[in-house]
Amino acid sequence: MSQPLDGPCTEHRWSGEGTSRTPFWAYTDDNLYRRELERFFYSGHWNYVGLEAEIPQPGDFKRTTIGERSVILVRAEDNEIHVVENVCAHRGVQFCRERYGNRKDFTCPYHQWNYDLKGNLLGVPFRRGVKQNGRINGGMPADFDPKDHGLNRLAVATRNGVVFASFDHDVEPLEDYLGPDILGYFDRVFDGRKLTILGYNRQRIPGNWKLMQENIKDPYHPGLLHTWFVTFGLWRADNQAELKMDAHFRHAAMISTRGSGGKGAVTAGVSSFKEQMSLHDDRLLDVVQEPWWRGPTAVMLTLFPSVIIQQQVNSVSTRHIQPSGPDSFDFVWTHFGFEEDSAEMTRRRLRQSNLFGPGGFVSADDGEVIEFSQEGFRQKPEHRTIAELGGRSVENTDHMVTETLIRGMYAYWRKVMEQ
Amino acid sequence: MNEDWIAAIAAAEVPEDDVTAVQVAGHDIAFYKTEGQYYATDNICTHGQARLCDGFLYGHEIECPLHQGRFDIRDGRPLCAPASAPIKAYAVKVENGQVLVNLS
């Protein structure tokens, strides 16, 4: 029944121009979601798969996903990085089950088809048949050529230790995909320094994947939802800030510099702001300015469709969005540091990651409200959101009191989805 | 040195241009005959632990039946992926219709 947008059934048509009012069905419709997977995750776009530091040695691999497809990020003997689809060429088995490991080659457990680390099929059991009493029984046809039956290999782009992949080998170069402004903020974090992996946390959030992108394109909520942020001065709506997008409006940077915290006009009306509150152990906020920040204390990069690059004071991480249906996604955080960090700085980054991790003072809130949003959408799919803070148009701004980045993302979304 | 030679199999039981295997002093040993010469190697592939005697001999190359890794039967060296570690090759001689192998 629900042929979305441009099918013969017009039930789900986004009426009118503009993107300040997103229909609820854009978050709940399964057919629409399938089309998003095809258009954003499986073609035309680069998707984050991991950090080179996760697979430092030849043979190291990491299993991850792009959209709903399982893929393997692997470093071959020659140190080259490859991304292959985790589907055996024989009977379609998702053969790789470990999240991480080190291998000389991959073997499917079902019939032991064997692949090298670049995805080439090396050998198949009984290819020449089985000898029995002087006869040879069975075997693959004489014209069976292993070269025709490798794993599906993805296009790979690495930049300063970050790995992206695409099922679409015609995708534009990564640098063009990000655009010069966003690339500049990307290189601010990833400037070629060697990375170290500090740890992971993962959560399953019962909401639509786009809500996570919106959450990090939304500077309206942090000072209102995350009262912890406000109380301890990490984020206030009157922080000096800039919001920037790429030319397509699909990626964004939310750039802010924290003020001194405490009481001010912006927090005066927030009911849970507690002026007298102080931390029993304030090492969590032992923030040390780093030269590479070049000013901003927080830069949140949303790279469409599937990753967020976060710098919140001394805590740096990637957050990987892995959708699983229109109303659920896995959210995988990789907390990292830099090889040049002192032991003290590493400890500081780990402590500050508690702001966002499972001991979270901040990000746990986002998972909750995303679930609540999805519940509202499910209840009345023909209704719509309002994203009109700062107007109805899409433009870069030098303040945070706007939902322009959300409108921007939906401008791009409509362009791609309504083709 | 002499006592290291073990009579392993009748020469007539090693098929021409092919492979067979027997247990020798508790070891699984593959025997080959090609161009009139006899050879012996470990019978178990170093990659997937399959029995090489179920594989196929091409000249001096034994191909594993499981993943088509190949070894040179003269010295045991791996010739192509996925084989990467050598198998052991053993000296053989034929005396009185018996193939003798030296496992030392």
UniProtKB/TrEMBL annotation, chain A:
The keyword Iron is annotated on this UniProt entry: yes
Keywords noted in UniProt: 2Fe-2S, Dioxygenase, Iron, Iron-sulfur, Metal-binding, NAD, Oxidoreductase
Domain Rieske, residue spans: 46-165
Listed Pfam families: Rieske, Ring_hydroxyl_A
Family matches, as Gene3D superfamilies: Naphthalene 1,2-dioxygenase Alpha Subunit, Chain A, domain 1 (3.90.380.10), Rieske [2Fe-2S] iron-sulphur domain (2.102.10.10)
GO molecular function, a single term: iron ion binding
Family the UniProt entry places it in: Belongs to the bacterial ring-hydroxylating dioxygenase alpha subunit family.
Protein name: Salicylate hydroxylase
Organism: Candidimonas nitroreducens
Lineage: Bacteria, Pseudomonadati, Pseudomonadota, Betaproteobacteria, Burkholderiales
TrEMBL record, chain B:
Name of the molecule in the record: Naphthalene 1,2-dioxygenase
Pfam families per UniProt: Rieske
Entry-linked Gene3D superfamilies: Rieske [2Fe-2S] iron-sulphur domain
Domain spans labelled Rieske: 6-101
Protein family membership: Belongs to the bacterial ring-hydroxylating dioxygenase ferredoxin component family.
Superkingdom of the source species: Bacteria
InterPro entries tied to this protein: Rieske_2Fe-2S (IPR017941), Rieske_2Fe-2S_sf (IPR036922)
Cited SUPFAM superfamilies: ISP domain
Single GO molecular function: dioxygenase activity
Cofactor or coenzyme needed: [2Fe-2S] cluster
Keywords associated with the record: 2Fe-2S, Dioxygenase, Iron, Iron-sulfur, Metal-binding, Oxidoreductase
The organism's taxonomic lineage, starting at the top: Bacteria, Pseudomonadati, Pseudomonadota, Betaproteobacteria, Burkholderiales
